[in-house]
Amino acid sequence: MLSAGQWGRYSGVMGGKRRKEPPLSRKGKAGRWRRFRPLAWTWRWSVRLILLSGLALLLLVLAHGVLNPRATIYMGQEARRLGAIEHEWVPIGEVAPAMARSVVAAEDANFCLHWGFDMEAIRIALDEGSGRGASTISQQVVKNVYLWHGRSWGRKALEAGITPLVELFWSKRRIVEVYLNIAEFDEGVFGVKAAARHYFGVDPANLSDLQAARLAMVLPNPKGRDAANPTANQRNRTARIMDGAATIRRDGRAGCFED
Predict the structure, then answer these.
(1) What is the DSSP string of the chain?
(2) Quick one: which of 1, 97, 251, 257 could link to 173 by a disulfide (CB 3.0–4.6 Å)?
(3) Beta carbons within 8 Å of 247's beta carbon, 6+ residues apart
(4) Mean pLDDT per 10-residue run, the chain (259 residues)?
């Protein structure tokens, strides 16, 4: 037995007539969707762009674990400003071991003990203020290879995001190798091979402990220091670097980047 409502629908169909439902008012809904579509499109493509950029960066980091990076952004800027720069890549196996120990002793003595960030140095820097740097060799490599020079929160945020990737996919020895080849040692002089010849007229494999320490001494201010003619304070700094290099060799803190 059909109810009254069911009978009405049935009789309407049998009689060839279907009761038309009132059309939905789509004007308001369509208007709202039209207003939001550009925003949704922008958001969707922004997310895609971020994901694609992240994937491209990951592939680049993976590639640089075995392939040497090309000239950095800063090298290009200096080449345009000066007309030319001195730079030639050299494998770490063709560099005197004292050079790697010296730059680690000078710039990041706990290099073998951290995963890209020296938390103790960061805490000390925060306690003492902005006058003390806390960037590790890994962070400096990331800044020089993938980013730009200058102080900005955006650059520091990118550096903080990329550094763990470099630490994850590169060996510590590879990080030191790249650092030695992209560091600036004088105006327009990049990499340890150009620096060894520029200052001392020798190949990097023939650097003495003293010469290696002097090259490491100029790194914080390569345009304002001279490895061949250091001041008294710079000679004292060189002596401390030599002591530090010997110390990290004895206590094992050089083991992660030495054969």
Answers:
(1) ---HHHHHHHHHHHTT--PPPPPP--HHHHHHHHHHHHHHHHHHHHHHHHHHHHHHHHHHHHHHTTSPP---HHHHHHHHHHS--EE----GGGS-HHHHHHHHHHH-TTGGGSSS--HHHHHHHHHH-TTS----HHHHHHHHHHS-SS--HHHHHHHHHHHHHHHHHS-HHHHHHHHHHH-EEETTEESHHHHHHHHHSS-GGG--HHHHHHHHHHTTSTTT--SSS--HHHHHHHHHHHHHHHHHHHTTTTTTT--
(2) 257
(3) 105, 253
(4) 50 51 54 62 80 90 94 94 96 98 96 90 69 79 92 89 96 98 97 98 98 97 96 98 97 93
CB crowding 178-195: b at 16 or more within 10 Å, else e:
bbbbbbbbbebbbbbbbb
Using CA atoms, how far residue 30 sits from 23, 27, 36, in Å, is 14, 5, 10
- Specify if 154 maps to a domain: yes
| pTM, 2 dp | 0.81
- The set of residues, in sequence order, having a beta carbon less than 8 Å from that of 77 and lying 6+ positions away, is none
Count of the separate structural domains present in the chain: 1
User: What is the domain-level CATH number for residue 196?
Assistant: 1.10.3810.10
199 inside domain? yes
